[in-house]
Specification:
By secondary structure, this protein is mainly alpha-helical. Helices cover about 60% and strands about 0% of the residues.
């Protein structure tokens, strides 16, 4: 996602410190990533509509491609962050011009309409448990399980979310744990049992591990297996 960030300071009052300690203790490979990458940059983002837009834009795209399109999308609204009302007023041709597919333009308009007509009321929704939020969001056209999970992680700062279908996480696990093939979602769920209740933090480090030099990852993986 374009909203992946780095480097927020971890303090004793920050639950991310406890999360990193737990993950490093229970998973040596993740411990290596934590040591190499540094503090986790996850933090709550109150711009809920924008985070959902980012998740829709990022669907089935690489991080770099999604970031480029997302930046162009935000630049369409130079005097404010994109709001549901502003997006509804934006012609599809203008949204297409920043690199969005016709289908994603439809999804963004459907999302904006849901905010505008009250189908999504965030002050109520954010108080619900993860599964209830996922069920509510996935009723909106263009929002699937993965998009709802990204919202839980990057907007609501829920630390116990495991998007088992995420290709980036699958690639990171295959590479970091030296698997012969991409792990199936059920295999990711087995990993997640060791990471609980900090699956989101584990995923953040797995995403960022993809930017580490491959040789560095292999050496750390081998050392953890010795």
């Amino acid at each position: 996602m374009a909203l992946l960030t780095r480097g927020s300071k971890i303090t004793q009052r920050n639950p991310l410190l406890q999360a990193c300690r737990h993950l490093a203790k229970t998973d040596q490979v993740l411990g290596g990533f934590i040591s190499r990458i540094g503090p986790c940059g996850l933090r709550p983002r109150r711009q809920y509509f924008l985070v959902l837009c980012d998740s829709i834009i990022s669907q089935q795209l690489s991080l770099s491609a999604a970031s480029t399109i997302f930046d162009r999308y935000v630049a369409l609204y130079p005097h404010q962050i994109p709001t549901p009302e502003a997006v509804l007023r934006t012609r599809p041709s203008i949204l297409r011009a920043v690199g969005l597919s016709r289908r994603k333009v439809e999804y963004l308009h459907a999302l904006a309409a849901a905010f505008d007509d009250g189908s999504i009321v965030m002050r109520t929704l954010v108080r619900k448990p993860n599964e209830a939020i996922i069920a509510h969001l996935t009723a909106i056209r263009g929002i699937g399980q993965w998009t709802a999970e990204m919202f839980l992680i990057f907007a609501l700062h829920r630390l116990d979310v495991l998007p088992a279908s995420d290709l980036g996480i699958q690639k990171a696990i295959q590479q970091g744990y030296r698997l012969s093939a991409l792990p199936a979602p059920c295999t990711l769920e087995q990993f997640g049992r060791h990471w609980h209740p900090y699956e989101s933090v584990a995923c953040w480090y797995l995403w960022h591990s993809l930017a580490l030099p491959e040789q560095d990852i292999q050496q750390r993986s081998l050392s953890c297996q010795q």
